[in-house]
Amino acid sequence: MTRRRLLWAVGLAVCAACSTPASRRAKAPAITETAPAHVEDFLAPPEPARPKEKLPPALEQPTPALDAAIAAPVPAAPTPAPTEAEAAPEEAAPEEGAPAEENPEEVSASSSTNAPKAEPAVPEGRRRLDALINEISLGGRKIRTEEILLDERPSAGVARSAMFSYMEGDNLKALLLSQVAVGEDPDNEMLRALMTTLSRVTGIEVDPDGVLPLKGLIQYELRRAELAFFDQRYGAAVQASRRVLLLDPKNSTAWQRLGSAEYALGREKEAKAAYQRALELEPNDFHLRVFMGEKGWK
Description:
Blueprint: H1 3-10, H2 12-16, H3 22-25, H4 63-71, H5 84-87, H6 104-114, H7 124-135, E1 137-138, E2 141-142, H8 145-149, H9 154-167, H10 171-184, H11 189-202, H12 214-230, H13 234-247, H14 252-264, H15 268-281, H16 286-295
Antiparallel strand pairs: 1-2
């Protein structure tokens, strides 16, 4: 990693925030005092084309849980406890010719026993999943669950992860994973229908430039974070960094860029936490360790 690239990780937050008081800028490492002449100088050169790789197994693992959620039977209603009228011993029959007396308690118990039983509650995750599947259609035809669950291609595995994330209530991660699935298999109309449906039900727009395979989407979002940072759009840099972390929680570069954006926003507590996580993942990052030492962050 070159000296110029290392500037981003530990000091560009201070450099870009040049409008802050001089007392604050003085605490940053000296190597960050000069802003780059061109943003593109800091952008990593494109990687040479590589053979198509199978996606990380982590994105294909939630399938058993998703299968279980779909196949799980709706829990049976509990057996009602016997009423007092049922549990009470039988009384002697009235004498012949005597008018029968109605017992108000028996009438009430009888009416409650004959009332319709309440349906058992459906788990929220199962309800969300059923609603999603019901919304997916391809050319006017409803997609059957088995069409996604039984597909063994890696792209379908990512699609199952997207459905699992939606079932768990993580809407943004679900949409990002659906973009990855389509990026892996652009001609698969079923996966595209899933992505479109997720966008509609979550209210999150699909970024057309972000429909990429996993590694491509991660690099795309890292680039967006970097450009937003240099444009002093620190909130956008935070969001782009967090999108990367949804896809790859152990991406140390994303944690460093998140820390730099948070620091530029004046949120030192959040910046410290992000830098500490980056240092846990890259303990040999000398410049980051020195910067944190100067700030008194252990």
